[in-house]
Write a structure and sequence with these properties.
Blueprint: H1 16-23, H2 31-36, H3 42-45, H4 56-75
Amino acid sequence: MTESSPSRPVPGPPSASVASAAERTEDPRPPAAAETGHEPSAEGAEPFADLDQLPVADHVAVFEAEHSRLQDELSTIDEV
């Protein structure tokens, strides 16, 4: 028979020093922008600005339209 391993304590919430260190980031940009160095464009945010006011059934059309726009935009990268 195998012996059971001793039980380990369950981790709790992060300590105050960890939380405060996370809040003291010097870069105010969102993490994705801070990592890539690229700011999200304003035109990329507009299609989703009123999404919370649309019925959920209409969300798919908004996402598909934005996906199509992004594909068109990204297809121009190789044309340089």
